[in-house]
Each structure stands twice: as C-alpha cells, then as structure tokens.
Amino acid sequence: MSHRRETQDQGFATRAIHEGYEPLDEQGALTPPVHLTSTFAFESVEQGAARFAGEAPGHFYSRISNPTVEILEKRMASLEGGEAGLATASGMGAITALMWSLLRPGDELITDNTLYGCTHAFFYHGLAEFGIHVRPVDLSDPAKLEAVISDKTRLVYFETPANPTMRLVDIEAISEIAHRHGVQVAVDNTYATPAITRPIERGCSFSLRRYWPSHSARWRNRP
C-alpha cells in the first residue's frame, strides 16, 4: 500500500525537507537519488516527440529538466510561495534568463540605485546594448517610482536587503504601484531567503535568489 505525503499544509521546515519527493516512488529510498543521466527513454516514439515539443510532461534531456533538479525547483517554489520554480547554474544565469524572457528592444527596465555588481554590469553593459533602456531610481521612496513609471516600463527590479549595503525597499508599496500600471516586479531575495521574507506573498511577480556555491532559482507568482 502506497501512502503519498501531502505537504501543502505542512510547515516551512517540513516542506524544506520533504516537498516534491515521495520515497515510495523510488523503491523506498529516503534520500532522493541523484540522476546523472543526460537522456531519457520513452514508451514510444510518439511520447518522445510530444515531450520534445512541450506537449506532454516528462523529461527528455537533463539540460532542460531532470528529476533531481525538479525536486529542488518544486521545493524552493513551495518555500517561496510561487507557482513554479526554475533552477539555473548560477545567480546571473537566473537573472539573465528572466530579463531575456520579459524584455525586448525599446522596453524600459526600472532598477533600484543599489545593485549587486554583476547585475549592474549586465543591465548597463548588456541589456543596454540591445536597445533596452535601464532607468535607475531610488526605490526606497515609492513616490519616485510613481513619478517615472511609463507605458514603456515592462519590469521593476530591486534587491532587498541590497548587496552589500543592506538597504531596504518596501516590496508591497513598489508592487502595488507597478501592478497598477500593468508592470511586473522582480525581487532578488538572496539575503533574506524565504525563511525571513517571501516577496511573492508581498505582491511581487518573481522572486530570485543566488545560492552558494553555484545554485540559483527564480519563482513565478501565481496569476
């Protein structure tokens, strides 16, 4: 008889350990196995084609998805209160993936004045080279966002606490202004972690976090 653990209503610590994994699905292994395969077998050619096309769930190539990484993504999305998660190889990988997914030439990105050095370099020497306007604003004062947000603004991005000054931004106030203008909000939650702050619960669209030594993820807010 199989008992499937329900973790939706369980506490933070329990979900951090158990979310996204059922030992009885893996021959009773208490610790999730590490899947080192690069490719996966299919029941039929049709099933394989559907997975490659994104029309059916399941894994087909570990660079795209992998059972081990999927557990991490589900677990961290649960802790952040997000709809789904995406793990990448680095923090900057998560940030760049989000930016290239949301922004196009001619769009405006509003950022806080204080940013992690590599994020600042990517925004001003990467995105700007592709026609994306990056506008720095002191987001510790929400009124300043209200004064500059426009119909070209697609995303508001900030860290709180910021690296390395620990400067704080009011997530709820900024999200309320941005959403009222139809603009999404992304928060770098590296320092606080979901154990202290869950930006999605405070209204932001995406929560990002850098892990050490080299793991990162981003979470999408529920619609």
From TrEMBL:
<dbReference type="InterPro" id="IPR015424">
    <property type="entry name" value="PyrdxlP-dep_Trfase"/>
</dbReference>
<dbReference type="InterPro" id="IPR000277">
    <property type="entry name" value="Cys/Met-Metab_PyrdxlP-dep_enz"/>
</dbReference>
<dbReference type="InterPro" id="IPR015421">
    <property type="entry name" value="PyrdxlP-dep_Trfase_major"/>
</dbReference>
<dbReference type="Pfam" id="PF01053">
    <property type="entry name" value="Cys_Met_Meta_PP"/>
</dbReference>
<protein>
    <submittedName>
        <fullName>Methionine gamma-lyase</fullName>
        <ecNumber>4.4.1.11</ecNumber>
    </submittedName>
</protein>
<dbReference type="GO" id="GO:0030170">
    <property type="term" value="F:pyridoxal phosphate binding"/>
</dbReference>
<dbReference type="GO" id="GO:0019346">
    <property type="term" value="P:transsulfuration"/>
</dbReference>
<comment type="similarity">
    <text>Belongs to the trans-sulfuration enzymes family.</text>
</comment>
<keyword id="KW-0663">Pyridoxal phosphate</keyword>
<dbReference type="GO" id="GO:0018826">
    <property type="term" value="F:methionine gamma-lyase activity"/>
</dbReference>
<keyword id="KW-0456">Lyase</keyword>
<dbReference type="GO" id="GO:0005737">
    <property type="term" value="C:cytoplasm"/>
</dbReference>
